[in-house]
Design a protein that fits this description.
Helices cover 8% and strands 72% of the residues. The protein has a single domain (22-200), classed as Porin (Beta Barrel). The chain contains one helix and ten strands, in the order αββββββββββ. β2 (40-43) and β3 form a beta hairpin.
Length: 201
């Protein structure tokens, strides 16, 4: 099995290196999969945090070039995860869905390879099995590489990081000398690594 995987990886690399130079297209559609990790949920009462287990991720992206080297992109993805359950030794399944819009800058590295970076914002939906789902604002950033093997088909490899403020609260107190208002915030960091296939138009 390892020999077959190694041969497939070698064949892919050889195809990428041997392919004639191909430029990214004005519109790209990407299907990707990978591994997501990090993040936590806050369980009431007491706002106790429970960590999300690393799990598989799959999704898609659609982007359009609006200036040379610059693209608008929309992404939708789902992570399948688990958290510690309310009883000892139990787990609760959690789907983590992300809906993001991004601005991407892309640079030619060499031949048919492009490197890119992206800033994203949108929302993350946490849906624990048997509990109500919650939607939270999310910021994200990513970096990766694209490699076109033909004019319209390529591969995309990417690492992303996210910040989601999962609890925000405020307290106000007023007296004879004025008012004091305080805010507290709790956020969670998470990330993923993915590989995908690009179809360009």
């Amino acid at each position: 099995m390892r020999r077959h995987a190694g041969f497939a990886g070698f064949a892919l690399m050889a195809a990428l290196l041997a392919a004639p130079e191909a430029r990214a297209q004005a519109v790209e559609v990407t299907a990707f999969g990978g591994l997501a990790f990090g993040g936590e949920l806050l369980a009431t009462p007491g706002l106790e945090s429970v960590s999300l287990q690393a799990g598989p991720l799959y999704g898609g992206a659609f982007n359009v070039e609006f200036l040379p080297r610059w693209r608008f992109e929309g992404l939708v993805m789902r992570q399948e995860s688990k958290v510690r359950g309310p009883a000892p030794g139990t787990c609760v399944d959690v789907n983590v869905d992300r809906y993001l819009l991004g601005v991407q800058e892309q640079e030619r590295l060499s031949g048919s390879f492009d490197i890119f970076g992206q800033f994203m914002l949108g929302a993350t939906r946490y849906a624990p099995a048997g509990y109500e789902s919650e939607l939270w604002f999310t910021l994200g950033a990513s970096a990766g590489v694209k490699a076109y093997v033909t004019r319209n088909i390529g591969f995309r490899f990417e690492a992303r990081g996210y910040y989601t403020p999962v609890v925000i609260s405020g307290v106000g107190t007023c007296g004879g000398y004025g008012c004091v208002i305080g805010y507290t915030g709790t956020g969670t960091f998470s990330g993923d690594v993915t590989a995908g296939v690009i179809i360009g138009f």
